Every structure is written in structure tokens, then in C-alpha cells.
Amino acid sequence: MLILEARNLKKYYRDRLILSFKNLKIESGDKIGVVGRNGAGKSTLLNILAGNAKEDEGIIYRHCSIAYIKQFSNEDITADGKILKEFKVDKKIDKDNVSGGEYTKLNIAAALSKEGELLLADEPTSNLDYDGIKLLQKKLSNIETFMLISHDRDFMDSLCNKIIEIENGKLVFYEGNYSSYIKQKFRERKSIQNEYDKYISEKSRLQKAITGRENKSKSMKKAPKRMGNSEARLHKRESNEKRKKVEGTAKTIKTRLKKLEVKEKPDKIPEVKFDFSLTDPPRNKVVISGNKICFSYDSNVILNNTDFKIYNGSKTALVGNNGSGKTTLLNLINNHFNPIYAVPKAVIGYFCQRFENLDYNKTLIENVMEDSIQSESSVRTILARLLFFGDDVYKKVCVLSGGERIKVSFAKLFVSKANVLLLDEPTNYLDMQSTEALENIIKTYEGTVLFVSHDNKFINSVADSLMLLKNGQITEFHGNLKEFEEKQELKNNSSNCNMEKSILQMRLTEIISKMSLPNCDKEMLEEEYKSILNQLRHI
């Protein structure tokens, strides 16, 4: 059943056309993921469909009630108490001092309480911890129809049956989940690359053919001086005929070259190369450490006599539930809170999504070059790697989307004198391509990185170590999240095996004791004895 339709819709931002498409239909049962580069118009589309923003042209037919999980909301939170309790924010609703993840949970609870026939969700997993994402995933799996924007690739994979990509204002529709969309995009890109290669090959062949014919025409010999007049006239006539034929062929080839359909060269992402030695990096094995750290907010204990070490060149993920103190710890490290110690040559660069390091009236390139110790060529390479191509670098920061501003902030950090990066939720509000680009940059970055993220795919791709924050204590682990979970599962299985083994051994003792009793059924007991021994051998 059709529940929403948008026809001939156009939306401008100042003089820039953000959206322009003929038709969008949402049917009952559609579970739609919306993807596209930062600034492509994803949030704008949801705001228009929800009625929170007005389209400049076109018409929208809404045949349903709509609930909306907004990316940023200043509205008062009213939500069902049961849902608030499920998300563990029932005691936070009247409090101003909540973490980013707790605030997101409050917005989710408010939207889910409305029970709309169509749910719109703009980055609903941003700042959510692992438990929060799993609970939201469960809630959405029970919702018949939704449209969501998310940077979490695993989350989209598990829920969506359709993908809409926004590119140059147009909507492109794909059947299947995010992984299916990626496979289809890969085939499309391969086809585009093949078409471009064929175009370049044919263009080169025609140009060579034209040059060959022109050279042949020029080399046509004049009549030798010893020839008689009649012979010379005949030779000249034959030469002219041949020359005209060659020139005619060249003209035909030129016409074919002009009519050859031009294929645009696909964007090629450049490799990031800059001189990290300019940051004068430390050579110490451990660059930041904390010893017996204690920190509280009033009666809320965040860190309780705990220790940690951050190793030089490591990529460490700081993992913990919402409200556990991850951002607090980053702030303490950045502010050199005693007894946290950083070695003398450690220069900290901190990303915390408040964009305090950006001048909104300056262009991208001006912002990034302002504190850069790298060359302008290296800066442009970083920006291109973060998907800012050509004249994009001359845009003013004030006209950028939230995700684009995040990428400019990253670029500033990577080319600054910082050699230790603290990143708080770096993938929040980034599009999929930008997230993957950031992954590659961090993996090739020669410095030390400590980051907070709830994007498991990002953690497993980037991290080589973990700091797990729980109940005021920090536990260190060498490896990524997947390796940690596998080790925990192995440990739990081993524990279960030991328990099962103890129970069987106790039963063996009991059987042996019974076998010494008069009038016992020895045959049955011996059979059970053999069976238990067999089970023990297989544990």
C-alpha cells in the first residue's frame, strides 16, 4: 500500500539546487536506507518528507502518520516510560547533564512513543553504545516501514531491504541491503571505468590514424625534374588524386573523432603522503599514561583508582557504554589532568565535533592551511582523499553540511604539528565513502591515535588495541573488538566446560558410592559410569 509519494520535487539552498527528482514512492513494508556524500541532501530530504522543511517545487502526498528521530532536536522530550526504561534513560529525562549517547536515546524514545506508520530516522545510532545500537536494531526490525540515514554499515545491512542513493540531487534506487548496494555500485564503477578505457583507446587510435594520413599527404612526391611535361602532368594528377583520397580519409576520421561520445574520467582517490617527521614525533615507547586516576562528577564516580598506557604509534579504541566516561577521559588527557602524563614531545590534537577550530567565513583551503606544517600540495591531497575535489576547496565553511565540516576539522588535525590525535566519535554524521576514506587515512597515519567510536566495523578496521572503560576501571587489550569478543566467547565456553566437567565428576563419585551398596543395580550404574566417562573424554 502506498503511504507517501513525492512528485517533481525541487529544493534549493540559496542558489544551489540540493534536490531535484521526479518521483519517490514509499510503500508499506519498505525499509529504506538513504546514502550519499555529506551535503548531498539526505537530511534535507527527510525534513521535507516529515513536513519540517518546505519544498521549493513539487508536491507531497502523505497517507500516513509520521514519527521522526531527528539528528539535532531542541524540542522537549515526551516519551513512554517503558521505552525510556528500556533505553536506561528514565532517570535522565529532566536532567541537563546527559552524555551525547543518552541524549540520542531520549530522542529515539520520544519518536518511538509516537508509533507513526512511517518512521524517519536521521543518524539514530550516533553516539549510541553497543547495547543501545542492539536495542534500536531490535525496535526497528519490528517496525513495518521506515526510512533511515545511518553511517553504521552493519546496522543498515541488518535492517534495510532498499537503498536510495542521493547524487547530484537525483535519487537512484537499489534493491537489497547496504552490502547488495555496494556490489551493484562496484559493478557500475567497473562498467564506467571500462567504458572510459575503451573511449581513450579509440580516441588514441583515431588520432594516430589522422596523424598518419596527414603525414602521408605531406610526403607525396613531386614530379622529378628529368620528367617531360606530359609525364609530369600525369604524375601531378595522380599525386593530387592520391592526396585528396588520403585527405578525405583523414577528414572522415576527424568527423568520427568529433562524434565519438566523450566519457568522463572516473574520480581516482589519491594516496595520502606527507612528511610526518615535521611534527618532531616522540620516540618513547609509551607516549601517554595514567596512574591511579580518580575522577568524579559530584557523587558520580567516573574513574576509580585506575591505570592506562597509550603506546607510540598505536591506534587505540576507547570502548564503553554511554555515560561510562569516555569523553570525560579524552578531556582529561587533553587538559593534562594530574596524574595523567604525556611525554615532552607529544603534541595532542583533539577532535570533539564542536568545530571550534574552524573559521566559518574562510574557505576550506584557508582553514586547513592556517596551522599546517605540510605543503599546500599535501593539504590538497588530504582534502581530495576526504572527497573534496577541484573547486570544492574554495567553498566557505559556512555553506558546508555538518559531515563536511567534520572532514575539514580532520584535515586540519592531520596536517598540523600534532602527533597524537584524540578523536571523539569521528564517524558521526560522515557518509559511507567518507568513513571508509577516514579509515584508510588513520591506518596509514604514522602518529598515535586514541578514538571513541560505537561503529564496530570502523573499530575492527582501524584499532590495534582497546581500552575498555567500565565501572570506573580501564582494561587494556591488544587487538580489535572482534578479537576481544572471540576471546571472551572462548573464555565463557571454557568456563562452561569446566562447570560441566565438575558436575560429571561429582556424578561419577556418586555412582561409585552407590555401586558399593548392597542390592544396587550394578548393570545400570556401570552403563551410566561408561556414558559419563565418554562425555568427559569429549569435553
Provide the fold topology:
Elements: E1 2-13, E2 16-27, E3 31-35, H1 42-50, E4 57-62, E5 66-69, H2 81-86, H3 100-114, E6 118-122, H4 130-141, E7 146-149, H5 153-159, E8 162-167, E9 170-175, H6 178-218, H7 229-259, E10 286-297, E11 300-311, E12 315-319, H8 326-334, E13 340-342, E14 348-351, H9 364-370, H10 376-385, H11 402-414, E15 420-424, H12 432-444, E16 448-452, H13 456-462, E17 465-470, E18 473-478, H14 481-515, H15 522-537
Parallel strand pairs: 3-7, 3-8, 5-6, 6-7, 12-16, 12-17, 14-15, 15-16
Antiparallel strand pairs: 1-2, 1-4, 8-9, 10-11, 10-13, 17-18
Helix pairs in contact: 6-7, 9-11, 14-15
Biased composition (Basic and acidic residues): 237-248
InterPro entries: AAA+_ATPase (IPR003593), ABC_transporter-like_ATP-bd (IPR003439), ABCF (IPR050611), P-loop_NTPase (IPR027417)
Region (Disordered): 210-250
Range of strand content: 15-25%
At CATH level 3, the topology of the largest domain is: Rossmann fold
The coarse silhouette is: globular
Q: How many helical elements?
A: 15
**Total domain units:** 4
Q: Which architecture name of the largest domain does CATH use?
A: 3-Layer(aba) Sandwich
- Please give the largest β-sheet: 6 strands, mixed
- Global Rg: 33 Å
- Class based on secondary structure composition and strand pairing: alpha/beta
Helicity, as a percent range = 40-55%
Enumerate the strands of the largest sheet in spatial order, edge to edge or round the barrel: 5-6-7-3-8-9
Detail the poorly predicted runs: none
Tell me, rounded to a whole number, the average pLDDT. 86
* N-to-C span: 55 Å
Beta-strand segment tally: 18
Region (Disordered): 210-250
InterPro entries: AAA+_ATPase, ABC_transporter-like_ATP-bd, ABCF, P-loop_NTPase
Biased composition (Basic and acidic residues): 237-248
Keywords: ATP-binding, Coiled coil, Nucleotide-binding, Repeat
